[in-house]
Structure formats: structure tokens, C-alpha cells
Write a structure and sequence with these properties.
Layout (H helix, E strand, L loop, with lengths): L4 E3 L9 E6 L1 H7 L5 E13 L2 E15 L6 E17 L3 E2 L3 E5 L4 E3 H11 L14 H14 L5 H13 L12 H14 L1
Parallel strand pairs: 5-7
Antiparallel strand pairs: 1-8, 2-3, 3-4, 4-5, 6-7
């Protein structure tokens, strides 16, 4: 990861361009949301007085888990960002400008490049409808049905006799949870 360290004390830094081919090793080292990927990043350094302006352009694809089915999802990434850096007494991130200690004199771009890539991703990363892992989607729908009070086919057979004795909903023939029935009776007593 030393290739991502920039010497801010170098006299020839202004106008210099750095090219990075980012791959799986980079993402494994960062250990974040992105599992794998292939990104080409170009970093151009411009000097403006005491501030170094880094223009960072990244383009490529990354592999992340789908928010719905957790299987691999390939996302196309293209982002252009700017990072302002100046030397100071101690490390600080002032929002628009990062201050690097003059005694250290180096800026590690790896984390900043990673964060710019992550920020360019959509808030929800999921496959297009119908493209998710079928096995996982079946399991998800089965658990959602159980959570919402519906019963899957295996449970229906064993609970048919219980359902026959359960109170019915107002507008349907489906059984209602006994707690709701007790609450409804309590509400009716209050209204009398």
C-alpha cells in the first residue's frame, strides 16, 4: 500500500499525475463493504499556494453483497472528486481540507480513494427485480410470511383445527391473533 503514499514535501508535486490499477488486494487490505473490484484511478495534483489539490477520478466495477439476497452484485463506478490537503502541526480533517502534520509529510491516498468509491455507490445496492438468488428469495419470502402472521403450507396442515376455533377478522374469513381479539373486546367495552 506504499504506492498510495504521496510525499507532500516534494518540490515537483504540482502538476504530477499518479495512475493506480486497483484490484482485489486493495479491497482486501481496506476490509470494508466492497469485496472485490477492478478500478482505474487517476490522481492529478495541483498546487494552489500552500494547498495541494488532488483531483481523483475512478472508473471501473466493484463487487458488493446485494442488500436483498446477499449474493454478489457487480456495480459500475465512475466518480470524480477533489481532496484539498495542506501541511500543519497535527492531523485534522476540516471538512473541505485535510491537514497533514509537517513532521510526517506524507498523505496516504488509499483510504480517501476507497471512501470516494463507496460514496459514489447507490444507497441501496440490489439486483434488478427477478435477478436475485432464487433460493435466498424463497427463504426470505417464507420468513416474511411467518413474521407477518401467515403460515406456510407445512404449518397450515398442523394448525387447521386451531384455526377453526380462532376468532375471525372483521372483513375476512382468516383467523385473527387472540391478542387482537382480546384488544377488540376491551375497546368495545370502553365504547359502551
Amino acid at each position: 500500500m506504499d504506492t498510495y503514499k504521496i510525499d507532500l514535501l516534494s518540490s515537483g508535486l504540482g502538476g504530477k499525475t499518479f495512475e493506480y490499477e486497483i484490484g482485489d488486494d486493495f479491497f482486501a487490505h481496506i476490509d470494508g463493504l466492497i469485496q472485490r473490484g477492478t478500478i482505474h484511478t487517476t490522481v492529478v495534483c495541483l498546487r494552489a499556494g500552500s494547498i495541494n489539490k488532488f483531483q481523483i477520478h475512478s472508473v471501473g466495477t466493484v463487487i458488493v453483497p446485494c442488500d436483498r439476497c446477499l449474493s454478489d452484485l457487480e456495480l459500475r463506478i465512475e466518480t470524480t472528486d477533489e481532496l484539498n490537503v495542506k501541511l500543519g502541526d497535527e492531523y485534522a480533517d476540516e471538512g473541505e481540507c485535510v491537514i497533514v502534520p509537517e513532521t510526517e509529510g506524507y498523505l496516504d491516498l488509499a483510504q480517501f480513494i476507497y471512501e470516494f468509491i463507496v460514496l459514489s455507490m447507490p444507497l441501496t445496492c440490489s439486483h434488478e427485480p427477478g435477478k436475485c438468488d432464487e433460493t435466498m428469495m424463497h427463504e426470505l419470502s417464507r420468513h416474511q410470511a411467518t413474521r407477518s402472521g401467515e403460515e406456510d403450507a407445512e404449518q397450515e396442515d398442523s394448525t387447521d383445527s386451531e384455526a377453526d376455533n380462532a376468532p375471525m377478522g372483521e372483513d375476512s374469513d382468516e383467523p385473527v391473533d387472540n391478542r387482537w381479539a382480546a384488544l377488540k373486546q376491551f375497546k368495545e367495552q370502553l365504547n359502551k
